[in-house]
From TrEMBL:
PROSITE patterns: GNAT. InterPro entries: Acyl_CoA_acyltransferase, GNAT_dom. It comes from the Bacteria. Pfam families: Acetyltransf_3. This is Acetyltransferase. Residues 13-175 form the N-acetyltransferase domain. PANTHER family: N-ACETYLTRANSFERASE DOMAIN-CONTAINING PROTEIN (PTHR43415:SF4), SPERMIDINE N(1)-ACETYLTRANSFERASE (PTHR43415).
Amino acid sequence: MTAEDTLLAGRSVTLRSISDKDHESLWKLIYKKTDPEWKKWDAPYYPLEPHTLDSFRSYERARKERLGAEEPDSRLIIEVKGEIIGTVSYYWEHKPSRWLEVGIGIYRAEYWNGGYGSEALKLWIDHLFSSLPLARVGLTTWSKNERMMRVAEKLGMKLEGRMRKCRIYEGKYYDSIRMGVLREEWEAVHGWAANQISSKS
């Protein structure tokens, strides 16, 4: 699939590429509120980069244009029954060694704790292992976001690093948490073998 037509369907959620017609809805979810609830859990020690609707459109178009010819789309919408509830994404920590990190944001609080994030992240990691020659997929969060850590652990990710008291939020120190899963661990947990790309290719 190309970056323009990625579509991953699960039991309750669908992941799909962001089209121009989605920009306004997604912008409203992420940027319209001054102090959104989701941001209090999603790396709140980094300020939310402000965007107007026009600058967000430009940002999204530029993101797609930066993708390599063989790279999957780096950010997909999460939908439930046709309603946009969040996004999944990936970025390269160090592309030459294929060190890739994933992210997920559920912007609608009413969809928290319903299993939607777990399903979306599983679909996403399946897709990335099948699309790229990765040995490992990583995820970085912080110690207050216990919900994110539980989701990662539930999917088979292991705690790989804890940098103690290196994040400050609302006057308190928190740890930075590194989690990850190896290709062979993912296959063992999820029975995933279809459309594999060898990490040695």
